[in-house]
């Protein structure tokens, strides 16, 4: 024990000691090492050393060489085949952030499945670690113990280390533990647990966190053919691993041997060989990705399958310097992009080709790239070398003509972030309004290039709006998609401008037809090598044309020719597709080509319209003074009114289209004519308006010119009266037939009216029947139903004729013949599924089919059985469900059976049926006797009908009356017997009676009675008398019963 001795000294009540804070004893310095694979190798490298490396968006070094971050180390490999490994990276690590708090009650557990790992690194931290003494106020250190456990292949967890954070820190302190991983088949489970309980006190700072876990594979790798940048940073300058970005010059690729990529110049002629150098020329980037075996199509495409000469021309066009919009110059096209994910070859190649406004396609076992750039026409087409001499033109839709483009590009001045360049076409907006499109300029890092992309899109959509298609023979073999062709179409040009060569001798060519040509004009010819050449005409002698220079090849007879002059040029098109058609013919589709747009895109020059026709301009003025009039004439005894539409001609019009309408109805096309008037015969009275359009030689229509509203009377006399109207009785209906009067008619329809009474004022319209229909059947009536009918005609002018008949209507009645009705109903019933089922014979049950032992008994000669079957049928257009139960008893050749059947049928055609039948049957002496009842409803051909059918020799209704039975209704042998009946309304075709009397008959007083003896007594009501008739005598009595009249034999 230590003795503490104090000495008194000063005054009592003095102050205590001052609280102290111990200095931090925990300090951590962590370094983050990151190895970035930045590109497929080999690359040119960093553009400007450390200034081209950015951490969190800030360059590592400034232009004066000073560093913005300390303790940063960088190493770089360009991605060559034999490059060395970067020092300081003895392993491959994949770090994953965790960022969770570790507590004593909640360990942290992670499963690791990658069995190739060598170790894991666990990083722990304490944001602060200290303890405050509540009595003295001193702040000192604190201790937090923890442990790390490991389980292999799902086994028990074993402790790998146990340690502690012990000391004091007021800032974040991190610690990393590497845990070696033994061999495993399925993986490991790692657990970190806190041993020291959490203080949960405001005076103790002891929060512990799991910051991250890193999977480690021990290997020192060179990564051949992969460009690498290794960076080590001090953790004191960053809260997390910083984001990195690099400004690089990319792949070293093959370029022409006479090409200097730095100055973008070409020396002499190219011999077709290559050298390797860095280049962002999109043509050679395209060539590289097509042929590279690691990331391109090199395994499938060889160098001789790529048209490098076409790419050489495209590459030169890309390298031409154009204004950049800021007073300087820049290459027309560059390609600066990263391909960061795998994709199908075709869209990747199309994206790369889009940089030079081109496309790529496969043809004749070659990869071909073409660009939209200035080019000479390769071939001439004229009706003379086109099937049927026919060119078909089509224009683009108005909505496809864009006037504003929003072009996305990557701005190198803003860390290559995406920007949007707004481009607009003022002339297009004035004509079509604002029609916007949004595009992404692939690989574009220049604002000027983005502006040119937008201008190209807008000018192309406005200037190149027409397509042409035509069919040719083997001439199609000389053109490919992307080729420029010339079309000499005399129908569009307005005069003869080409044909076939009749003969040639040196510079002199004899053509096959007269043509308007002068000295100084240009003669175009297709030569035997499949190219088109042009020469200046120096002499004209009829059809003999002499040119000023030799042709590169001798001109052959039948070669296609054309001539150009100052006021007429051939049309230029770019081939879009060549499609094989029937036989040896091919169909060529091409898009309008305007070469003046390129200078307008690059330099803002004015676009010149190419004179391709001497016909009138595309805007056709309308006609004037459209007027309407009418006249009448007698044609075969009928007055016909004709409307005349005339107008004043329009300049340059070759035809007119005429339309008219009556009373604001639909417009009716009257036709196309070359004159200045047109007639419409047989008009009706009404208010008319006409409109006329002028048509130019280019088939361009003008705006319509309208006439004033004009009232024309047309025909006013009514049509004649119907000749006849006949009503014929049919079962449950009435058939109407009518006849038209003889002679010419302008009848439009027949009106039929019907009513229950002969008064037409109470009738209603049955229908309108278009001429020349002359019959109609009215169905669905009750038997013996009566109607009255009238008919009248209405002509095409709307005039209504007189009624037929003019008075009482024609009487029609549905059939009241019982025999006809019963025959009809028999036929209709026989068509139904219910009748078929009810009248079919019950099939006999064979003993083996009788079911289980509990349902069948007998020895095969005498037996009884019950069979119940259920079946469903489902086909593509039909479904049937059925259940049948049959009971049968058989002795020798005689049998008795009872069957209950239920069936439901549905068909896709709309036919539906549901039925339920009960049948009884006996079979003896070779005859079958059947009785049954069926209930069903069917829908066939849109008619739904329900019915109850009974099949029996005798059908009776029985009425039990005490100990006796009364039969009020019996059907026996086809006859109906009724004991007593009350009928409100009845129709009898033929009847046989015994005695018949009224229901109020009292002999000698009221009512009437007719007996079968021939006596007829008729008694009056009230004060009236009575009359009695026999076959020989008539007697009349007064009210007092006194005989007043006797007539006959007595």
TrEMBL record:
Domain Tip attachment protein J: 341-501
InterPro entries registered for this protein in UniProt: FN3_sf (IPR036116), GpJ_CSF (IPR015406), GpJ_HDII-ins2 (IPR055385), Ig-like_fold (IPR013783), J_dom (IPR032876), Viral_Tip_Attach_Protein (IPR053171)
Pfam families: FNIII-A_GpJ, Phage-tail_3, Phage_Tail_Tip
Region: Disordered, residue numbers: 1-22
Chain ranges of the Tip attachment protein J central straight fiber domain: 898-1027
Protein origin, superkingdom: Bacteria
Boundaries of every Tip attachment protein J HDII-ins2 domain copy: 92-219
Listed Gly residues bias regions: 1-17
Protein name per UniProt: Putative bacteriophage protein
Native organism: Ralstonia solanacearum (Pseudomonas solanacearum)
